[in-house]
């Protein structure tokens, strides 16, 4: 009887942490849907296409991107450069969307006391609705970047 209880206790001790474990990487929802993997995959595809398949195009590719003695790091340098450029472009688009959203929210808010109160009622979420402008910008910027 005592052995049975010890075995059950050991089983429960080991099974509870396993049940609470985080799913392995690549399973379930991604933590950051806007991660750089897609940019890197697209960069790798672009570099593969640019490299070509003939000895002449491969040599030209290595000359263009390679930085070490035998130019063997050319593919990695190409992918890194293209992924960085893609991330910078995405950041610029996001900043443009925020600027445009801020201008739209400022126009929507208006200048009269009545229009400002209506704006706060529409977008404000805290007690004094002082966060209305930020909520408006966030909402519009997200809508612009997802479409």
Describe this structure in words.
With 147 residues, this protein is mostly helical. Helix 2 packs across helix 4 and helix 5 crosses helix 6.
Summarize the topology.
Blueprint lengths: L1 H18 L17 H15 L3 H11 L8 H36 L3 H11 L8 H15 L1
Helix pairs in contact: 2-4, 3-4, 4-6, 5-6
Would you kindly provide a brief summary of this structure?
With about 150 residues, the chain is mainly alpha-helical. It has one domain.
Low-confidence segments: 25-34
- Strand fraction band? under 5%
> Structural class per helix/strand content?
mainly alpha
Shape: flat
Distance between the termini: 65 Å
Number of strands: 0
Question: What's the number of helices?
Answer: 6
Task: Give helix and strand order, one letter per element, not per position.
Answer: HHHHHH
Helix content: over 70%
Count structural domains: 1
Descriptive tags:
0% strand
């Amino acid at each position: 009887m005592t052995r049975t209880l010890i075995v059950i206790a050991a089983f429960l001790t080991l099974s509870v942490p396993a049940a609470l474990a985080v799913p392995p990487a690549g399973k379930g929802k991604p933590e950051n849907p806007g991660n750089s993997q897609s940019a890197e995959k697209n960069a790798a595809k672009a570099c593969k296409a640019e490299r070509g398949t003939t000895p002449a195009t491969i040599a030209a590719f290595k000359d263009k991107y390679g930085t070490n003695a035998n130019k063997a790091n050319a593919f990695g340098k190409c992918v890194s450069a293209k992924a960085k450029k893609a991330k910078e472009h995405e950041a610029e688009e996001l900043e443009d969307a925020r600027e445009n959203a801020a201008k739209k929210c400022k126009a929507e808010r208006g200048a009269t006391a009545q229009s400002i109160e209506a704006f706060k009622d529409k977008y404000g979420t805290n007690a004094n609705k002082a966060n209305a402008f930020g909520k408006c910008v966030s909402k519009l910027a997200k809508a612009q970047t997802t479409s």
